[in-house]
Amino acid sequence: MLWLWICVFLLKEQEGIIFAVKCFQSTLEKEITFSGYGIHSGKPSTVVLKPAVADHGIIFFLRSEVGRLHGFPADVFHTIPMDFCTTLGVDNIRIETIEHLMAAIAASGLDNLAIEVSACELPILDGGAAFYMKAITEAGIRTQKVMRKYIRILEPIEIRSGDGFAGFSPSPSDAMRFDISIFFASSAIGRQHLAFTLDTDRFARDIAPARTFGFLKDVETLWAAGLALGSSLENSVVIGLDDRVLNAGGLIAADEFVRHKALDAVGDTALLGWPFIGIFYSFKGGHRLNAQAVRALLENPRYYEMTSFRS
């Protein structure tokens, strides 16, 4: 059984890129609790991340007003289609804005968690996933004695909506790769592109700090729809009527916008239920289109196979 202890990660080098493929499932060493306000609801919310046994998966729990506990596995088949956030639930029992936490969970390589949420929306916190990454690192990760499964992409599959598209394609390397492009007419954003292999350290350094963003011209429309009620310059990048960034500290990088879209893509593709081996790509994508691509892949088994790795 020596292989059980040495095969925590397989370090591979392909196409000049060194990356790690985890052989085994993992969970947290200890609980994490955090609180804040939902970016859309503006309401307070407390979330507790609890370690879970192997093969438990990522499951969110919410107690309804009548006291019933509802559990929703973090997979695309338990989502409610929305444009402004990724939402789990059914009918009026919903857990909104899970994408940033899911991105941190995926980037940290966590497979099994019980996540208890006190309200209908996760708190926005820093507007990205940096807080989550730091909290997970401090809590520690425990390797479990069960093989980790991967979804290997075998054939390309793509979903289109207007002039935007999102899809999966095979990769010559055993890695989870992203190729994200965006275009906005605003001169503050324009056309931006980011391609990367998902790696915990790089994600924490370059992508997790990227904040959600929006336009001042859209604020009244969003408020009227009950959205962005908890948004502020503390958790969001706001572009003014003159196409200038209103945040006093500016951007973390000139391409912060596509970095945040990449963050969202990492979180949304985590709704596959297992990490994938291949490339996820999108142009002018969003939560709804990302979810459609994930669902299309899972509903067409000929496009993928399940696999595991050993040393």
Look at the helices and sheets and give the structural class: alpha+beta
Q: Can you tell me the residue ranges where pLDDT is under 50 for at least 5 consecutive residues? A: 1-6, 13-18
Q: At the first level of CATH, what is the class?
A: Alpha Beta
Described by strand count, sense and barrel closure, the largest sheet is:
7 strands, mixed
Radius of gyration: 19 Å
Oligomer: single chain
Work out the strand percent.
35-45%
State the helix count: 7
- The overall strand count is 21
Overall pLDDT level: 92
Helicity level: 10-25%
CATH superfamily: lpxc deacetylase, domain 2
- The helix/strand order is HEEEEEEEEEEHEHEEEEEEHEHEHEHE
Please name the CATH topology. lpxc deacetylase, domain 1
Could you give the topology of this structure?
Elements: H1 2-6, E1 9-14, E2 17-22, E3 24-28, E4 32-37, E5 44-51, E6 58-63, E7 69-73, E8 79-80, E9 87-90, E10 93-95, H2 99-108, E11 113-117, H3 130-139, E12 141-147, E13 150-153, E14 157-161, E15 164-169, E16 176-184, E17 190-197, H4 200-207, E18 212-215, H5 219-224, E19 236-239, H6 256-269, E20 276-283, H7 287-298, E21 304-307
Parallel strand pairs: 6-11, 13-20, 16-20, 18-19
Antiparallel strand pairs: 1-2, 3-12, 4-5, 5-11, 6-7, 8-9, 9-10, 13-21, 14-15, 15-20, 16-17
Helix pairs in contact: 2-3, 2-6, 6-7
